[in-house]
Amino acid sequence: MQAEELSYAIVTPYSMRKSRTGGIIARLISRTGLDLLGARMFAPSAELVRKYAETIVTEKDARHRATQELIRDYVLKNFSGEQNGQRARVLLLVFRGPDAVEKVQCTVGHIVHERTSGETIRDTFGDYITDDSGKVTYFEPAVLSAFDAKAVESDLKLWAEFSDRDGGILDQVITFPAEAKIEKTLVLIKPDNFTFPNLRPGGVIEVFSRTGLYIVGFKVHRMSVAQAEEFYGPVLPVLEKKLGPGKGRGAWEEIVEFMAGAKPSECPPEKRDEPGTEKCIAIVYQGVDAVRKIREVLGPTDPAKAPPGSIRKEFGQTIMINAAHASDSVENAKREMGIVQVNENNFKPLIENFFHRNSVRS
């Protein structure tokens, strides 16, 4: 059996600004077949940028070294500072599985080997433009990664070290007009999108990008039974009134089971607060009138009643298996963000624990 590896991909500030995040995530998950283990938003400090840039140039071969030097210079120029009223935001995604480093490398691609045929992420979303003399006049790598297991470990440990200070909910990095009605809202990409590695999680995010809102928080989350009970607590009396106490409670327990992997009535007390078996992605969007815009693109609870082009029409199946959840008010967004602990740094311990276990085994 092949040993599991970690690999990573960093969605660049340009890709974030151009709302290419969903398309990139779709390819990374579906083409690698790897498990999206964790993720965190960063507004990198000058110190993190400098330290990360120092690790990039390693090749002896002149051609590959020249590309790495381009990437290093790109990071130093684009990963900090401000552009068009925005501080640089990057999304760091962590993948796990056999041959993870090689699979991510094949999916990301080499920026110089551009064929404009869509084979790799960089082929589609990146640019490497030269003049007649061969001098690079424009360079955009779309995503960054490391293609050596030791470099991946070193890079992930570096970003983990800065993950508290430079990462989390980046709700102070975008400048809005003083009179603008700015809101934050929560989206959950539900477990039905993760039954096997596929395009759906990225596809859902891609549709949400139509809102023009900004992703300022991103977390891979496994909801505990206790969290699911609290999250869907307001739904219980509604279902009991509609279906009767017995059937209503049963339907509510099925919702909790769908989100956390176990029914409350069947979950031992000591397991209630443990992370569940089902995975979702919690995303915080920020912008003008965010709650309404997200709900509009999401569509009604029942996919059969959702309009064409909405997420639930495109990706939903039933009232429960309906692709995504979105907060219905600013107040509920705050409540729900608190329950799923969107600002919790689960990125750092997963990096530390993985490499600690591997060092103990070896």
As an assembly, this protein is single chain
**Count of helical segments?**
16
From N to C, what is the helix and strand string? EHHEHHEEEHHEEEHHEHEHHHEHHEHH
Measured as a percent range, the helix fraction is: 40-55%
Return residue spans where pLDDT drops below 50 for at least 5 consecutive residues. none
CATH fold node name of the domain at 1-168 and 345-362: Alpha-Beta Plaits
The best one-word shape is globular
Largest sheet: 4 strands, antiparallel
- Tell me the β content: 15-25%
The CATH class of the domain at 1-168 and 345-362 turns out to be Alpha Beta
Question: Kindly, what is the distance between the CA atoms of the first and last residues, rounded to a whole number of angstroms?
Answer: 16 Å
Counted beta strands: 12
Provide the fold topology.
Layout: E1 4-11, H1 13-17, H2 21-32, E2 35-42, H3 46-54, H4 62-78, E3 82-83, E4 86-87, E5 90-98, H5 100-108, H6 121-125, E6 127-130, E7 136-140, E8 143-144, H7 149-161, H8 163-166, E9 182-189, H9 200-208, E10 214-221, H10 225-231, H11 235-243, H12 245-260, E11 280-288, H13 290-298, H14 311-315, E12 324-326, H15 330-340, H16 347-361
Antiparallel strand pairs: 1-5, 1-8, 2-5, 3-4, 6-7, 9-11, 9-12, 10-11
Helix pairs in contact: 2-5, 2-9, 3-4, 7-16, 10-12, 11-12
